[in-house]
């Protein structure tokens, strides 16, 4: 009798994630690679405390990706956190091992790989990070690693952060890399965008949006109208997803 290959299940942990890229990406990847024993599904949790029930009910999980709003909330549930993820302060990849759950961050890698082709000259030395959530932590870590100075912008700024009202013509012209780490503009609320003075943006700017649905958010369209280079989060997602898969297999 032919031995049945054991099922390997993976998934995405988040809230309101029916729009997500990950399920389709991994499902296509498994099909292309002939990994018929692998599957990927969404786990839409109302609250992070529901994770305990999920772990009891889903005994054959091998790995999870973690998205908004649980990249920081997941930390107390992990038995081990990779040093880089610990330094970032957020986890987007969980590996199931015999000794417990291990947390990693592949967002930083995904961002660095996806933005490299855009940084064709040395003029982009100052960046604005719009938003202060879990996704912004990996971006801040990456920029620091790349030698790019940054300021975080928030509706409720903390110490060392700016409010949107602080974004003068001078500051916009100085900070030629602007990264949206907020969910503003995500489908279906595609008309929303961060409240920055887009009229001060020019051809020397790069606008990068972690949002990938739609392809061109209102944020990116406003930048493109001013002549800026634009990039959405789809390539970052592919890079981070591929790195997640490597972690799960090692």
Which helices and strands appear, and what pairs or packs with what?
Elements: E1 8-14, H1 22-32, E2 38-44, H2 51-57, E3 61-66, E4 80-81, H3 83-88, E5 93-97, E6 100-104, H4 107-115, E7 126-130, H5 134-145, E8 149-153, H6 169-174, E9 177-180, E10 206-209, H7 218-225, E11 229-231, H8 234-249
Parallel strand pairs: 1-2, 1-3, 4-6, 7-8, 7-9, 9-10, 10-11
Antiparallel strand pairs: 3-5, 5-6
Helix pairs in contact: 4-5, 4-8
Would you mind describing this structure in some detail?
This protein is an alpha/beta fold and 250 residues long. It has two domains: 98 residues, Leucine Dehydrogenase, chain A, domain 1 (Rossmann fold, 3-Layer(aba) Sandwich), CATH 3.40.50; 127 residues, Rossmann fold. The protein contains eight helices and eleven strands. Helix 5 links the parallel strand 7 and strand 8. It is elongated and about 60 Å long. Keywords: Amino-acid biosynthesis, Aromatic amino acid biosynthesis, Oxidoreductase. InterPro entries: Aminoacid_DH-like_N_sf, NAD(P)-bd_dom_sf, Shikimate_DH-bd_N, Shikimate_DH_fam. Pfam families: Shikimate_dh_N.
User: Which oligomerization state do the chains in this entry correspond to?
Assistant: single chain
CATH hierarchy, class of the largest domain: Alpha Beta
Q: Report the average pLDDT across residues.
A: 94
Q: Report on the biggest sheet.
A: 6 strands, mixed
Strand content: 15-25%
Which architecture of the largest domain would the CATH scheme give at its second level? 3-Layer(aba) Sandwich
């Amino acid at each position: 009798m032919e031995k049945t290959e054991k099922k390997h299940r993976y998934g995405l942990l988040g809230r309101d994630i029916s729009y997500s890229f990950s399920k389709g990406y991994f499902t296509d990847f498994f099909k292309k690679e002939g990994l018929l024993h692998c599957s990927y599904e969404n786990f839409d949790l109302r609250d992070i405390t529901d994770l305990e029930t999920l772990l009891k009910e889903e005994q054959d999980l091998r790995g999870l990706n973690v998205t908004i709003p649980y990249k920081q909330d997941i930390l107390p549930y992990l038995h081990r956190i990779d040093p880089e993820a610990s330094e970032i302060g957020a986890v987007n990849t969980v590996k199931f091992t015999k000794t417990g759950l291990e947390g990693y961050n592949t967002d930083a890698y995904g961002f660095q790989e996806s933005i490299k082709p855009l940084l064709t000259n040395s003029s982009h030395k100052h960046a604005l990070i719009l938003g202060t959530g879990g996704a912004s932590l990996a971006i801040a870590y990456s920029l620091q690693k790349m030698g790019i100075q940054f300021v975080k912008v928030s509706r409720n700024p903390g110490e060392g952060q700016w409010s949107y009202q602080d974004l003068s013509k001078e500051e916009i012209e100085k900070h030629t890399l602007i990264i949206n780490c907020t969910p503003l503009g995500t489908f279906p609320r595609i008309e929303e965008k961060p409240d920055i003075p887009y009229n001060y943006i020019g051809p020397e700017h790069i606008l990068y949006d972690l949002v990938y649905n739609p392809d061109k958010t209102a944020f990116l369209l406003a930048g493109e109208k001013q002549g800026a280079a634009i990039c959405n989060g789809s390539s970052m997602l592919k890079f981070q997803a591929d790195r997640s898969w490597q972690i799960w297999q090692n």
